[in-house]
């Protein structure tokens, strides 16, 4: 039905009427609508567009005309009510805008006292932004990977010269003066300071320390290549010196894969000069002795325990948790499907150790691969190309779990559930259907480790309950998970007690000085400029930290040719010709 | 000119914009100031385009112009003539001119004469015909042609007489500064400037030695035509930007225009060369009965106003039109102008915007910044029906394709020896 509604003496601006018309046109009950003031020319337009009703003759220039085609009288009422609401609606000014921050200039203007740049942009662009951070006097926490190692070495040296530190590239985790950065758990503050070249390694150790009742105020990530010969442990050594100097740090834990010999020697030389008790963990090497005040751990669990015991002034002895009760399997294979690279690495060397596997035949894409056993870090680039990390996206692990049914040699599957910022909201539920299905079709035992604390937003108890309900054996830590898996195949890890020798002498006369800004970094809550992933502001805001989000975009849409043109034009000098 | 860097060259260009002094001097038949129009030639908006590539409204405008010039007496013959190549086409911009929408300018159409006194150069633009069925939106009915004849025979000569009584003509900077404080952004909204203009001319018209009928008709037309000043602003912007581009280096955008097929820009360092990309379709609000499906692709030289720094670049100046910017209101307009300032070198102190806390309008779109940041200028524009003859069906905003800016800086880098 076609309706002509004339609202007498209701002048409205034509823009208002156009907006209203377009809104009403989107309503399902409205077949056609046109709203204009009743001027002679508008009445002509109505007639020309097929809205020719006798009522039009009565309209004047001061009347608002609503031409409405609707199915029923009810619809007409609804539409009229809506018109009334729209015309009387007042804007509360809630749209007050914050200026978009899309340059260093604006970010620094907004946060003049920021001291850390948290960088998570694509690696090919990261070096330039790290350099800008350093030039502006900021420490850099670099989540981005794929930064060329030459650039890393150059930038770290430059930062060091200015008393600054570059954490990363490829630094997944960090706690700076209690502020969790990137993929991090919420853990208790405390006097154990951690320096780690590995992300999930830091997560496993800090969460275990939290469960043992101690805490970590600073966990400084250095990136995996810091201890390479090219980089020379610049960030590691600066961090050691800074934590040694920090009055609120009593014990230092250093975590890394085994570095080059000369770098290891350099780091140990520094550590032997440190007066605070230190625990080292060079993942994959099996130390046979401690030094007095300098303790050498074999596993992540041991590093966490030794650090805690040093804080508690207890005897520094590693007491690994025993394996959980399981029934023996007829099959022999152990499969580890990890989202945490360091956990996978630890699994690989512990299994090799227990099962006396040769390490040589490990093939690409596997952290460990033998006839019966395999350990895969599903966060490896090989599996994540064009996909989110398995800590966020369960898909690839679901595939792996499903494939177990067709592998009669598999006795046990070990996997991790990593909680905290950046991780999946409910990984246990996401993996659950695949595990239920696999268990129904085979005798495979599932063993998991949940990395997290009771303060993590995913609710750790709930995650454990979901897994236990479907018969997954949930372990306290990765070592226990592997012990349990080994028990399923009738094997076990043996941990020999270590003797404590005197500390070797350092060649250093004294430790280097700590720069003022590095001392400040670990003793005060940092102020962050976040460049890249907006979600990284969440952990900071949640913990009442100050953060400015810089909406970074690659120059010229990432087009390298155009970037070169811009660079040429920006550098061009007319007289140089 | 002695520059060390492109930054300095650009500064020289924008200095000329700031120092410019455009004055409206006269209204004259186009052919008296554009010599090529004494041939059988039509000027059109945008970069060069062939008859067969013109969209329907631009072709309709050409038909209207042929009928107006009496080169043919019916549509069919007019179209034949236009398609045959008998009529030459040339961009307004190649003749110191600009034209709104279709931009079709023919020999006997009256044009504004604006002189930029700081550089001594002149620019031209046809007069605004009002709203509804008008030539610039592709309408060519008897009514349209009749109005054009009246503009030729009455409006043009009367305004000319009035302007010539003034010693220096109308100082446009003064009008713009006044009207921007009254809520005009000079592309979508010109009502304040049009009234201020009438305030200058009205009393003079009453004293002219012309008939009462002429006085009444001209006064009525000026009072009715809210967008009258737009075409003055276009000519003034053209005069200012042409004066500024006598600096022949740098990356400042000196013209933006569209012909319905291509969007074209010029930059200071590349002189007369056009850099083009496929034109977009405006987004906006439609008059009752029309929708986006009816919209013609973007046309017109009016984006010269954005090149100067008004129109969409000065969205925040015109709260009354801010709602054309998508769904939002004041704050969207603020965002738009803030974003525009990121691709401009500076802000023009001559034209402070009250609603922008008296920041000056955007000054000097730098093609380098457009490419670097991926932010393109926002252009406020009328929307033509894609069928000739229907005219304007709405208004909104449109952005140029970023490719024109990319091509421009690439060409300039090449010219400088990259």
TrEMBL record, chain A:
One of its GO terms (biological process) is tricarboxylic acid cycle. Residues 188-282 form the CoA-binding domain. Residues 338-486 form the ATP-citrate synthase/succinyl-CoA ligase C-terminal domain. GO terms for molecular function: succinate-CoA ligase (ADP-forming) activity; succinate-CoA ligase (GDP-forming) activity. GO terms for cellular component: cytosol; succinate-CoA ligase complex (ADP-forming). InterPro entries: CoA-bd (IPR003781), SUCC_ACL_C (IPR005811), Succinyl-CoA_synth-like (IPR016102). It holds the Pfam family CoA_binding. This is Acyl-CoA synthetase FdrA. It comes from Vagococcus hydrophili.
Automatic annotation (TrEMBL), chain B:
InterPro entries: AllG-like, OXTCase_su_AllG_h-dom. This is DUF1116 domain-containing protein. Gene3D superfamilies: conserved protein of unknown function from Enterococcus faecalis V583, Enterococcus faecalis V583 domain, v583 domain like. Coiled coil: none annotated. It comes from Vagococcus hydrophili. It holds the Pfam family AllG. The lineage of its organism: Bacteria, Bacillati, Bacillota, Bacilli, Lactobacillales.
